[in-house]
Each structure stands twice: as C-alpha cells, then as structure tokens.
Design goal:
6 strands; alpha/beta; Helicase, Ruva Protein, domain 3; Rossmann fold; 6-stranded mixed beta sheet; about 60% helix; 3 domains; Serine Threonine Protein Phosphatase 5, Tetratricopeptide repeat
Length: about 425
C-alpha cells in the first residue's frame, strides 16, 4: 500500500468517526512524513487543537508544519503563545531560533541557540553556528590543530637531562604497554591513560610531555587554556570534545593540557554552572564514554594540584600523579649547555655553575644567562670590545637572581603537611629534606 493510499484510508476512517482523536493523531503522524501534505497537515493539527487546546505536542507539530511551508513569522507567534522556549524539544528550539534569525531578531535567536548548546555541547547547525559561533569555533578547529597544535616531536628521553624518576613512571605507564600491548591486554590493562605532572613553574613539564610523544613516536597535541575556553556557553565543551576526537583518530597520540587546574578546578569553588559543565565534559572525555581512549595518553600539567577537582584523580583518569621537581645538578648542567650552545663562551665550568644555582628551575637558568649577557653587552658598549661568557660571569649573575621555586615550595609545603591524607604530596616533603 502506498503512503497516499494509507492516508486516504485514515481520512475515510476519520470522516466516519470525526471525534476519534487517536485516528486523527495517526493521520497527523503519517502526513508529517510526506512534505506534499503540509497544507492538509496544518488543517488537521488546527482541528486537533480545537479539541485539545493545551496539547504541547500538537503545537510543536504545528510549528514544524508552518516552518516547512515557509511561514516563519507564524512559527514565532505560536512559540510566543506557548512561552518558555527553554522547555521545548531541541528540534523545535532550532526552528524558532532560525525563524527569529530570519526576522533579524538576533538577540532572541542567540538566547535560544545558547540554551541549546548548553544542554548539548555536540550540537551542530550550519545556519545558527555561522551566525553566532566565534570564528575560532569547532568548524575551524581541525584546520587550526593541523597547523598549530598537531605535531610529531623530534625530541625524546635522551634529550631530557635527569628526571629519571619521572621518565621511569612514564615508561611503566605508557612506553611499556605500547611495546607489550598483548601482554598488558591479557591482564586487562589499557593502552593509554592519564598522567598528571605537577611541580614549580618552569621545571620542564611541557618538555617532558613532548619528549614522551617523541619516545613512542606518537602524535602530539598541545592544548592551552585559550584553545578550549570560549565566550559562548557550550562552546568550551565542544572544543574540548574536538581535541579528544582528534587524538582518538590519530592514535597513538599524546594530548597535553597545560594549566589543567584552570579547566578542572574544584567544582565546589565554582559559582556558576558553566565551569562545572566544562569539568563534567572533561571527566566524560577522560572516561571515554562516547569513544574509546585506548592508545591515547592524556598528560596534564599544573603548578597547583591542590586546586584540581579530586574527581580527576580517580582510577582511569589522571591515575599517575608525578612530581616534577627543579632540575638536579646533572640536569642543570645539561640545560646550561643547551642554552649556551650558540653563544660565545670561554671554557665554562658547567658543574661549578650548576652548584651555584640551588633550587633553580629551567626558567631561572634562562634568567641567569640573560643577566650575564646583559652585563657583557653593557661592558661592550663602553669598551667597544665584546667578550665571551665565562664561568665567573654566570656565577655573578646567579647571585643576582633568586630561585623562583622557593615561593612555590613555601605554599606546597603547607599542603604537604596539612592536606596530604592520600600521600600524593610526599615527594614534596622528600625533596625538601
């Protein structure tokens, strides 16, 4: 039986029993599937509403019928008569937002659009997204990632001086599973997972993340706070989802989140639901609810792990929490050599310089070298004769620059002593000893 024949039979049955609302609804549902019946569908809906004027389902269907006929102003009239757009089904909200947009009522259209994406971060609609989404929206994120975020690092663990404990933890969590995939799977172990790197600023958390990707010859995505957060409600969740999807499509992949505490702050400290929605989305992505994270390593870096929501530390999320301390003397020697590689120098005693930089971070070493170079340039301007950097210059500069990590350890020590029930800050106390 053809659709036309089915509709005609329902019409005949309804003519014989005009008050049978069940038959009328069956006819409406059938007509709804065929665009050529939109005018007749409108008439049937109006008849049904006479008998049941408060039926929201009928009103929503009437809005769809008007929209399919191009009667956008009428759609708005019906919607305003219903009121409370927020409670309408998503497909009806989309129609109303489009209608407002066509009538140049952008403020009303934007309000509905923001409500939709706050409930459904994966929402996509070309017309509304084009009108209201910022230019750095999900439509462009793949191109942005390809050019700015997506890379294959050319460094590995051999380029990382020191950090032996950090490298050992990463080797056990990431490298060994990839090299022995079948063995790990036999014991129910995932290939991938989450690692949280914490410690004072400037101590190489980003560098070790890149080196990890290079060590396993994987893709690397570096995600900053500005790459996720968006002025429009719901867009931040979408951006976050898109980065995870890219990582899943290109595994093995390391996805690195700097300042992860800003994305995953304690929900109890947040006053609005927007930040909580981002955190919930982040947790869902880490859990791999919508897609498997097998083969994806998520590395987060933070200077303030005590501000991170405790839900991130549950098994299956950031279940390896690794302290990245200031570089030891061997590491500092390596860093100083690297920083001075292309600069004029004269028989520098790297070991002696490293000993004169207690508690220095990599950033502090940079500052020390800058001070030494500035002093040499100042003298060269006076004498007209530039000279190479010496051990004496660097030691003199180290006395002028104080380690920036000391302030961090003052704060961290308080958390390690008084908020360390799980023992995650024991490494801080061990370092201070």
């Amino acid at each position: 039986m053809t659709p036309r024949e089915e509709i005609e039979q329902l019409r005949e049955a309804l003519d014989a029993s005009p008050n049978n609302e069940v038959l009328r609804m069956m006819l409406i549902k059938k007509m709804q599937l065929h665009p050529e019946y939109q005018k007749e569908l409108e008439s049937e809906l109006q008849l049904a509403l006479k008998n049941n004027p408060h039926n929201l389902e009928l009103k929503y269907l009437l809005i769809k019928s008007y929209y399919n006929q191009g009667k956008k102003s009428t759609c708005i009239v019906v919607a305003e008569e219903i009121g409370d757009n927020d409670k309408m089904p998503e497909d009806v909200q989309v129609i109303i937002a489009r209608c407002y947009l066509s009538e140049n009522s952008n403020q009303e259209a934007r309000k509905i659009y923001q409500n939709i994406i706050s409930r459904n971060p994966q929402f996509i609609d070309d017309e509304l997204d084009e009108a209201f989404r910022s230019k750095t929206s999900y439509e462009d994120v793949d191109d942005q990632i390809d050019s700015a975020f997506f890379s294959k690092p050319d460094i590995n663990f051999s380029d990382v001086g020191g950090m032996e404990e950090v490298k050992r933890e990463i080797d056990l969590k990431i490298i060994k599973p990839l090299e022995n995939e079948e063995l790990y799977k036999a014991y129910g172990k995932k290939i991938g997972g989450g690692i949280l790197l914490y410690g004072p600023p400037g101590c190489g958390k980003t560098f070790i993340a890149r080196a990890t990707a290079g060590e396993i010859n994987s893709n690397f995505i570096n995600v900053g706070l500005d790459d996720i957060l968006d002025m429009w409600q719901g867009n931040s969740e979408k951006n976050l989802h898109n980065f995870f999807e890219l990582a899943r499509e290109n595994k093995p992949c390391v996805i690195f989140f700097d300042e992860v505490d800003a994305l995953g702050a304690k929900r109890s400290d947040l006053k609005n639901s927007v930040g909580k929605n981002v955190i919930n989305q982040f947790l869902a992505e880490l859990d791999g609810i919508s897609a498997s994270n097998d083969g994806v390593l998520v590395i987060g870096a933070t200077n303030t792990p005590w501000h991170l929501d405790t839900a991130f530390r549950r098994p299956g999320r950031f279940d390896r929490i690794i302290f990245v301390p200031p570089p030891d003397e061997k590491s500092k020697e390596h860093i100083i050599r690297l920083k001075l590689k292309d600069k004029p120098q004269d028989n520098i005693d790297y070991k002696k310089v490293a000993k004169n930089t207690p508690h220095y971070s990599g950033a502090d070493i940079n500052a020390m070298i800058d001070i030494a170079v500035e002093k040499i340039l100042e003298e060269a301007f006076a004498t007209g004769t530039p000279k190479p950097i010496t051990t004496k210059d660097l030691i003199a500069a180290s006395k002028k620059h104080k380690a920036s990590t000391k302030e961090w350890f003052t704060t961290a020590k308080n958390y390690a002593l008084f908020a360390n029930k799980s023992g995650i800050y024991d490494n801080i106390l061990n370092y201070l000893k």
